[in-house]
Write a structure and sequence with these properties.
By secondary structure, the protein is of the alpha/beta class. The chain has six helices and seven strands. It folds into two domains: about 30 residues; about 110 residues, Zincin-like. The strands form two sheets. The chain has a four-stranded mixed beta sheet with strand order 1-2-4-3, with helices on one face. It is flat. Bound molecules: zinc ion (ZN). Zinc ion binds next to loops. Zinc ion (ZN) binds next to loops.
Amino acid sequence: MSDDAIRLAVVTRLNWIKAKRKEFEKQARESQREYVSGETHFVQGRRYRLNVIEGRRTPKVSFSKSGWLDYQIPVNSAHDERERYFQNWQRRELRRLAEPIISDAAYRMELRRPDWGIRRMKTKWGSCNAEARRIWLNLELFKKPIGCLQYIIVHELVHLYVRHHNDDFHRRMDRYLPLWRNLRDELNREPLAHEDWTY
Ligand SMILES: [Zn+2]
């Protein structure tokens, strides 16, 4: 085959290749976590591998040698238990990270600190109920760099002033978080990109 023929063959299949690639990314994204040794888990934008240690009574997750997470669990824990303990840990860690960011941002934005919580949501990074003065953060944010968490927090807090993503909204974003566009791009970057999620 000549180079031109190969090029042509690739070009004509480009759409197919792109579609397949998207499909694979989607699968990678949505694959169920098994919580077994060697499995990849993201923490604040960094890739960690799980080292499962069976035997301890009390489940515990801790950072061990670089790039590894030790996960102590009772022997023969079922998948649901492994998942629940792990997500509880993620939730505690995310709470610890988000708390000072929310307090600090609310103070700078001259807002009374809103009620807030962490939730697993399928299509949203965060949400704001301005009437109830409550914001929700997706537990998935724990997997993203901390700047992404800050971006979603400030975004949701701006919603306490402005409901829609209009000029006023963006002016406030520029004022309270000048680098928000970079952080938004970071949020949409692979892995764990969810370009279609709202907030
Ligand atoms: Zn929004």
